[in-house]
Design brief:
This protein is α/β, with parallel strands linked by helices. 43% of the residues lie in helices and 13% in strands. It has two domains: 174 residues, Aspartate Aminotransferase, domain 1 (Alpha-Beta Complex), CATH 3.90.1150.10; 225 residues, Type I PLP-dependent aspartate aminotransferase-like (Major domain) (Aspartate Aminotransferase, domain 2, 3-Layer(aba) Sandwich), CATH 3.40.640. It has a seven-stranded mixed beta sheet with strand order 2-10-9-8-7-3-4, sandwiched between helices. Strand 3, helix 7 and strand 4 form a beta-alpha-beta unit. 47% of the residues are buried.
Length: 428
């Protein structure tokens, strides 16, 4: 029976433009909901033949790992890119006034942060910007602080540039399944004379913490006191639960503005990571000049002929409507996943979150080796998750699950997770 079910699901993924089959089983209400949806996030899109890194192992394996959505991008982005492609000439392209206005308007209207045009600098991606900041704002042998568990590429940006990495490990409360900052440890590491930079993740990946104004101000004050510059990665800032907002680090105070480089982009929000387009916001003139010079030296200051158009077309009125619908859909996926795991897989603990489409799961009742657990799930259940080992901190007891996909895939993934956990527990 399991064999035939698996064959059915795999066939489902090869068919383009089909409706959610799990939802169809629920009757007229779901059919009506699908019909009324302006944006069809239930639609399964075949990504084979596109070079998708996420789907590199083929459609027999269900990939719920890398932070890449299985939804088509916003119509305004797709239409703008199609129009540009139809022109037929793809030469060197300069950013126009619309690019600046798009970022400025979006952050003002969505996040209440008034960005000045001069503060914006184009860069091909957030991680290139972080790496450039490490090379620009620190010297070899100096310390860079990160708060773990955190996005694995932070480690590479620091260590590959011969800087010392200091982990300010977030404190984990297993009873409440939550993380908080270890302020005593953070102050100690910031006060080291060799510490010159802190890389902040706001909202935090993978815990999903949305840092509040008071927390960000306290971080800013500590860093200013100790002559430490803050690089704030805010790429997940628009991927929040409906009704929630986030606070940009630089918006909190004049001190935070003075000591910060903020990394932002439409790529995660609108599922256009393959189009290299991002920006840094640097209010301080001296830091901005250093960053501008380094980004140009690193050859990260020039996008392609689609980079500007992609950002401009994302940060529009329709982009906002699409994003609001996406947030509703993704966080319903999260609600379903949390309820399923709570009911059927009590040996796993989900970390509650109001940010990102990534679910951080405590698997310490099953194993203290997330690498081994992830490998087991791939072999036994054909399910790909991220191992928490790469995130540092206490990540070796966690896995990360990507919920930004059609609901039928989420339900399939949860069933595969249940199958894998049962198989794991039987082997104990």
């Amino acid at each position: 029976m399991v064999f035939f079910y698996q064959r059915f699901i795999n066939l489902n993924y090869r068919v383009k433009n089909i409706q959610n089959r799990f939802l169809k089983r629920n009757g007229k209400e779901d059919k009506k909901r699908i019909k009324e949806m302006k944006y069809d996030f239930d639609r399964i899109i075949d990504r084979s033949g596109t070079g998708s890194w996420k789907w590199k192992n083929g459609d027999a394996m269900l990939p719920m790992w890398v932070a890449d959505m299985d939804f088509e991008t916003c119509p305004s982005v797709k239409e703008a890119l199609q129009k540009r492609v139809s022109h037929g000439i793809y030469g060197y392209t300069a950013l126009g006034e619309n690019w600046y206005q798009a970022y400025m308007s979006w952050w003002k209207e969505r996040h209440g942060f008034a960005i000045e045009k001069d503060w914006l600098v184009f860069v091909t991606g957030v991680i290139p910007a972080v790496s450039s900041a490490v090379r620009t704002l620190t010297n070899p042998g100096e310390n860079v602080v990160i708060q773990t568990p955190v996005y694995p590429q932070f480690f590479e940006s620091i260590l590959n540039n011969n800087r010392n990495l200091l982990e300010n490990q977030l404190l984990y409360d297993r009873e409440s399944s939550s993380y908080r900052i270890d302020w005593e440890d953070l102050e100690k590491k910031l006060s080291d004379p060799k510490t010159t930079l802190m890389v902040l993740c706001n909202p935090q990946n993978p815990s999903g913490n949305i840092w509040d104004k008071e927390t960000l101000q306290r971080i800013g004050d500590l860093c200013y006191k100790n002559h430490v510059i803050v690089v704030s990665d805010e790429i997940h800032c628009d991927l929040l639960a409906p009704g929630y907002g986030y606070t940009p680090f630089a918006s909190v105070s004049d001190i935070n503005k003075k000591i910060s480089v903020t990394c932002i982009a439409p790529t995660k929000t609108f599922n256009i990571a393959g189009i290299k387009t991002a920006a840094i916001v640097v209010p301080d003139k001296e830091i901005r000049h250093k960053m501008w010079l380094r980004i140009n030296t690193d050859e990260s200051a020039e996008g392609n002929c689609f980079s500007g158009i992609a950002a401009e077309s994302a940060f529009t009125k329709e982009g906002g409507e699409w994003l609001d619908a996406l947030r509703e859909y993704v966080f319903e996926n999260r609600r379903i996943a949390e309820a399923f795991i709570g009911k059927n897989i009590p040996s796993l603990r989900v970390i509650p979150s109001d940010a990102t489409y990534l679910m951080w799961i405590d698997c310490s009742d099953i194993t203290d080796d997330a690498d081994q657990f992830v490998d087991f799930l791939e072999k036994e259940a054909k399910l790909m998750l991220n191992s928490g080992v790469d995130f540092g901190g206490n990540g070796k007891r966690f896995v990360r699950m990507n919920l930004a996909c059609p609901r039928s895939m989420v339900e399939d993934g949860l069933n595969r997770l249940l199958k894998g956990v049962r198989a794991k527990e039987e082997k104990k």
